[in-house]
Amino acid sequence: MTDMYAICDVMKKPHGVLHVSYPESGGGVSLRPSTIMKELSDMLCENGAPLEIKRIEFDRLTRLGADGCAKRAATLFATEKSCYYEVLRNAVSGRAILEERIAYGSAYECMAENDKLRLDGVYDTPERVALPDGAYFKDTTSVSRLETFFNCPYSHYFKYILGLRKRKDGKQEGTENGTVLHYILEKFFSDVRDGVLTKAEDIRDKAYAYFDEAIRVNGFEVLLEKQDIGRLLRRVKEEGVRVCEDLYEIYQRSEFKPALLEAKIGEDGIQPMTLKVGDRTVRLKGTIDRVDTCGDMFTIVDYKTYKSADLTLKELYYGQKIQLYIYMKAVEDSLKAKPVGVFYLPIFAGFMSDDTSRYKFKGQVTNNESIMAQLDSVAAYAPRESVVPYRLARDRKTLNPDVHLPRHAFDLLGNYAVRLAEKGADEIANGYIKPSPVKDTCKNCNFAEICAYRECNERKLGTAGMSSFDISDKDSDGENGKSETNKNDGGGTAEKANANKEFKE
Ligand code: SF4
Fold this sequence. Notes:
Blueprint: H1 2-12, E1 25-26, E2 29-30, H2 35-43, E3 45-46, E4 49-50, H3 69-76, H4 80-92, H5 101-109, H6 113-123, E5 140-142, H7 143-151, H8 153-161, H9 176-193, H10 203-217, H11 221-224, H12 227-252, E6 257-264, E7 273-277, E8 280-285, E9 287-294, E10 297-304, H13 313-317, H14 323-335, E11 338-346, E12 362-366, H15 369-375, E13 404-405, H16 407-429
Parallel strand pairs: 5-8, 10-11, 12-13
Antiparallel strand pairs: 1-2, 3-4, 6-9, 7-8, 9-10, 11-12
Helix pairs in contact: 4-5, 4-6, 7-8, 7-16, 9-10, 9-12, 10-12, 14-16
Residues 152, 154-155, 158, 435, 437, 441-442, 445, 447-448, 451, 453-454 line the site of iron/sulfur cluster.
């Protein structure tokens, strides 16, 4: 009777539409609707048919918590208008997490038709924006900007066109360790290269000095005083010693020696690089961590301070990791030398293995085993233990063609990366912004909280390997790559690859 009274009372009040809702569960058990619900639906009808009961999955509103969830949701979605405002405020603004979207989808169904039309307009996926010529690029751009674009054009739009930045919350950025380790390694190899550091026993004192300098030049003194980050940074101080000692040992095993450190494209002995964007040229900027040389050969090394760093041909193919191959082209043209390795080198604080085999270049290396041994003498007798990538093909006899490349393949990949960068830059200049993230990109996106398209239109990338770049087997330098040729087809075949197709779809 209490229910009956409440319903009668409430039915006298509204002037427009009355929504009556009830929970399906509560307190961990299923609930049945009050008999009043049946009486109401028998009593009322629309176009001669009983009123339809629409289901709203309130329990998906995780932020409301389990207790009282249905009650609060009933309040939030009590009227057509409140459904509209709630959907607008949470779902369209991007605040709602994925699990809540079902609830907001149900709320959408309860909205008035004209409000639905208004929201539908908002949800039209944007493809392009028209900005004045030159608004997209000034004179320069970076390769990492292009990689952002290939990961999600909408995230690129937020960051580089609108100039949005992640809100600073005073917490540790997580980049300090990398900054300090990069600095230590730059100074360390600079002293090694210049003959200032020649004895392993001097490394500890030197590394401490590099650390102190890194703290000073980056203004991190204040961070050292903070409890959490200070402790982490002091660990990096010890890790810096360890990394220098280990890499010195690897350095001594190699005929390749550091030639360029933290070298900037267009400076430091590396000639400028430009991209053709429409009828104008845009200068590329970027910094290369390390270039090692041996005679007329060189390798590119990029330090990464996370363990899972990898450089696969698939990521190059889809534009996610074109940076090192573009740098490789810049160095090749500048030094007039030939590339035999393009590598990430993961160096991460906190890894406490006791041997130098924890260091492994990730990326592509020559398929010439003699040169692999020049890169690391250990590769001559125990390639798996060496710092050089070593992977066999499926036949377990020959080298994996996606890791071990013939000479001309480096050129093909380099040309491909440059062409892809130009296509990406061209799309940016034409205002392409469609939210179409590569799968899982949204999980680490700085703009996820304000993006209405989070995890929508996700692109699942296909597989890609050396064959995707259209290099036929007959171009290879022999089964195990015992010999090198200087074949260079100028990248003509690689350009045919339609690798930039996916970001438009
Ligand atoms: S949240 Fe996802 S769709 Fe939105 S900008 Fe970020 S990566 Fe792109």
